[in-house]
Amino acid sequence: MGDLKLAWRNIWRHTRRSILTMMAIGFASLLLVFMLSFQFGSYEGMIDASVRLSTGHLQVQAQGYHDKPEMRKVVKNPRKVMDALSRTPGVEACTARCQTFVLASSEDRTRGVMIMGVDPETESRVLKTSSLIRQGEYLSSDDPNTVIIGALLAERLKIGLGEELTILGQARDGSIAATVMTVRGIFKSGIDEVDRSTVQMLLTDFDQLFGMDGAVHAVVAVVHKLTEVGEIKNTVMQDDALKGLAVLDWMELSPGLKQSIQMDLVSGIIMYVILIIVVAFSIMNTFLMAVFERTREFGVMMAIGVKPLRLVKIILMESMFMTGLGLLFGMILGALLTQYFAGAGISMGGAADLMAQYGISGRMYPRLSLITLFSGPILIGVVTFFTALLPALRIPRLKPANAMKAV
Amino acid sequence: MFAQLAWRNIWRNPRRTAIILLAIFMGVFSMIFFAAFSRGMANGMVNNAIDNLVGHIKIQHPDYRSDPDISHRIDDPRSVMDEIRPELPDGSKIVQRIRVEGVAANARETAGIEITGIEPSKEKGVSFIGDAPIEGEMLEEDDEHGILLGAALADRFDTEVGKKLVLTTQRADGETQSRAFRIRGLYHAEIQATEKAYVFITLDAARKLVGNKNCATEIAVTLPENKADRALEQTVSKCKEALKPFNLSVYDWMEQIPAMKAYLAMFDMFLYIWFVVVFIAMGFGIVNTVLMAVFERMREFGLLKAIGMKPAWIIRMVLGESLFLLIAGCAAGTLCSLAFTWYVAVTGIDLGSFAQGVKMWGMSRMIYPAIDIGDVIAANAVVIVLGLIVSVYPAVKAARFTPVETMRQN
């Protein structure tokens, strides 16, 4: 107890210096808390955008469909799979979907497009295509033989609401499938690739047109919590209804997304490490000076019988007090700052267009979590401990007689 | 004299000076290297984008961009090329292409692609396809039935060199036209999306396919490497002037890929914010060290004042000391980071382990850090200017010591 008191008082012998050191530590931890929260928030935004626009968190498909999507690789009994998914705790909603490549023609243009058969009732619970409608309306099961098409595609086909779109493709059995559909709505997701090449129609129409016989290409599910995806995937795979089918999570469905998150995280970590090193050097000076300046004092203390190791302990306590206080303030301010921006969002300005290409909105929302709050400060704490250890370990080498002579 | 005094003062405590120099060194080093690394990454992205059939300058029908259809073509592209050729700097390359949307199909698979008609021998050094590694053979100039396919697309179609592929597109007269092509080669690109997006045939074959003997949809100009930045604006305006009589639009690469331009603007801002952040981290150390140096020497300052030194001179001396520290640290940091960056830039940094993420963002796998003299100056300026500003506080403290008070101490 006495040592603690001593250490505490020692810090305040040099108020200004101690406060500056604590500010350096506090600043670094504030920054780390905020930046990490920002990064994780943006990842969640990216994943959510990608998941809600196209892939869902989980998909059940026929084996091999993901690598080589072919018309004949189907999930034969989607009802059973959807029941199994709905039973699984943590699953928010699921929907069945078909897709294939067709030629779509308007009066004077023809383009190759990806056509999806969706069930509007369940689909709108899973994905947010319905909220992306810019003109007209979303699909409805009361209105068969209609399609919704991407805005860029509509432009290129020179087609508008209520006009007819001729569709020509290959049915499941290899025969030719052709029909004429009316454009009911035009959607814009902001992702050019999607808006340029996607058409959606009713699953029932798709089934009839392409002779799917009740089968689908994928059952898409979203879950309540991103972190539970792995667990839910494992549970679902155990289910008998899914025997012989493949279950893919969002990381497998869009590996590019996962890797770009990893890459961003790694480059972020490199930045943080650089920052921590710079901070470490800038506070090492204070710790070193605090020891050198007090050579005489240590000499006296040793002479009156304080064991060198106890002195080391006191010195380390001092630096840990400073670190701890600095980290505490940094974390509190960092958390406040993060919470503020978590509500207000951060506008990405000119980069918004670029990010729209990848389905990310122009506003980023940092997200505070235990990981983002503690991992940075803990790392700083560890580094400063070693920074402080270096000068402290010099103390046992001092000889009391010589040390007392020092100025 | 102040300079000399300040210089000697900082070496009165070599250990302290060495540590603070190390902190400044680390800061400057990391700033410059990080800047070079990320600039290398950005350059890679820009070059990839320009290589991706964009080119520095592009001439198209005014409506082609919003609606890339063969009806928005350039008729008699030769005469257009002849018109602008004298306006281009020496060493520029100029190519004509036909690019139309189409559908590729074989027995197994159908996919939407972009049919690109090129003059194969002219694409070298202009777009990625001219220099791409190819399995099989490159197209010959007069090959009317050959096609080049991206490796990823071939994989999806489960096909290989020598097999057939049917292309369908809309002709100039609005009719739909299909023709069979034989796969001559499979190309590899940096970005997989590219491999899936483009198939290449010869310009003549493309003209036949769209049913117009003398047309192109675009003319692309690649400027010589050393002139790409400086001559761009001027050349664009000269081309615009020369093409007045034609109903055509001229775009530089930034207009063609506005997202990239926005990214570069954000990139600069981000970098400078980062510089300031790193500075703040070491700024605390600088203030602390200078402050300690000042407090240790209270007696000295008191004495100096007692023998008639003005407070302003003391401020000058203390600032001189930190200026020396800052300059020495910056110089060492700059030199070492330049040397290190140069060393790394020779081999490049391989981001292979993030291959797909890298591809998604259109970057190169290999990153060659690029030193930008502006970044180096900015990093040094940030450290020295802000460093001096934060040193004002200890300097003013030193100037405020009163002789009597200080000389009583110790």
From TrEMBL, chain A:
UniProt membrane topology term: Multi-pass membrane protein
InterPro entries referenced in this protein's UniProt entry, alphabetically: ABC3_permease_C, Lipoprotein-release_system, MacB_PCD
Protein localization: Cell membrane
Major localization listed first in the record, in broad terms: membrane
GO annotation terms (biological process): lipoprotein localization to outer membrane
Domain MacB-like periplasmic core: 18-206
Keywords: Cell membrane, Lipoprotein, Membrane, Transmembrane, Transmembrane helix
Membrane spanning stretches: 20-40, 269-291, 368-390
Family the UniProt entry places it in: Belongs to the ABC-4 integral membrane protein family. LolC/E subfamily.
Listed name of the protein: ABC-type transport system, involved in lipoprotein release, permease component
UniProtKB/TrEMBL annotation, chain B:
Membrane-spanning residues: 18-37, 269-295, 323-346, 366-393
Membrane association type: Multi-pass membrane protein
Record's GO cellular component terms: plasma membrane protein complex
Domain MacB-like periplasmic core: start-end pairs: 17-234
Keyword Nucleus assigned: no
UniProt keyword list: Cell membrane, Lipoprotein, Membrane, Transmembrane, Transmembrane helix
Record-linked InterPro entries: ABC3_permease_C, Lipoprotein-release_system, MacB_PCD
Main location: membrane
Gene Ontology BP annotations: lipoprotein localization to outer membrane
Domain of life from the UniProt record: Bacteria
Record domain ABC3 transporter permease C-terminal: where: 275-403
Pfam families recorded: FtsX, MacB_PCD
Subcellular localization, as worded in the UniProt entry: Cell membrane
Annotated family: Belongs to the ABC-4 integral membrane protein family. LolC/E subfamily.
Descriptive protein name: ABC-type transport system, involved in lipoprotein release, permease component
Upper lineage: Bacteria, Pseudomonadati, Thermodesulfobacteriota, Desulfobacteria, Desulfobacterales
